[in-house]
Amino acid sequence: MTTEIQASVQMPLLACSMSSRLNGAGWLLALCAGLGVANVYYLQPGLSLVQTEFGASPGQIGWVPTLTQIGYAMGMLLLAPLGDVLPRRRLILAKAVLLAIALVAAACSPGLGWLVIASIAVGLLGSIGQDFVPIAAQLASDEQRGHAIGLVTTGLLSGILLSRALGGWVAESLGWRAMQFVAAGLVLGVMMIVWRTVPDMPPVSRSRYRALIASLWMYWRQYRALRLAAVSQALLASTLGAFWSTLALVLAAPPFHLGAGVAGSFGIAGAAGAWVAPGFGRLNDRHGPLPAIRLGCSLVIVAFFGLAALPASLWTLAIGAVVFDLGVMAALVSHQTIANGLEPQARSRLNGLLMTGAMVGMAAGAALGGAAWSHGGAPGLYGFSALAGVAALAVSFLHRPTGNHSS
User: Measured between alpha carbons, how far is 209 from 219 in angstroms, rounded to an integer?
Assistant: First the structure.
């Protein structure tokens, strides 16, 4: 199979423009990816409103984001691989319809139990955002693949970071249920974009679903580069989980004494780092992924050592957020370039394995970052994150410089 698919398609706009107008086509995929993954996070800023309405305890309300994230991880493992055996355009359209229904169900929840069930479905189907990465990799040429993946990854991280700010604003202004209705409308907008622009690409594999899922372990064992990429990205993602899950606590403590609303605004600063990701994609295309991975790890280390060493201020915190998010993005684009270049007929599965590792790392980072904050305050939090960056950098030197990626 060639790297640039030349299939007969019903709606060929993106297929025709990925090579000739990569930026425009890539940003369109990035928009869809960001709007897809954002649904996993819209509700988080409004959880206090949900708690008040349903009279739930903090422990009970905590199950909503937890099970949403578990649903997202399960979607990466169980639904994302379907992109290798089903036409990706049709798969995305079906998931978009079901996701919109799940969001409406969440908005109409009569009680916490119903909301939890709907949130699991939202997380499961929120994996739709990751479906656009293999599409970009498949449509782009070898010379442009890193740049194309960088564009889509920019949309993914921007969706994660900006969704909290939008979710908090809408929940505060119109209520948490309104945000779910708005999200459903945005998903239908994504469906229309996909319907009009994404080519109806044929499946790249004809495996049965059971064999498809079983092959995940085979690929994990076969490709050493995939394992190293997943471990390294999990370590870097742990810094995301640690920082963003404790940011409200950092801002509430001395010397800031600020409310939780300011934490959402920091998502805008963090998203600024994501917009440089396409540049790292070009670096991958020209020099391979390892230089960008090591640069990204170094940026994470410098950012957190700087936060620990410099006097605490909103400016240093904002700059640190931009720099470390930039580093995580640089490495993620590079790791996705590695994963998507291993075996063209298994891109959805390989990307799913990589991102499952990242999700595990983010969840572990949230837990360990909270513990580091509890025992060591901000210096403990920044120290943990810097050490995670050092470990990720060390893993990057285990990659073989040759083209042999197998174990």
Answer: 15
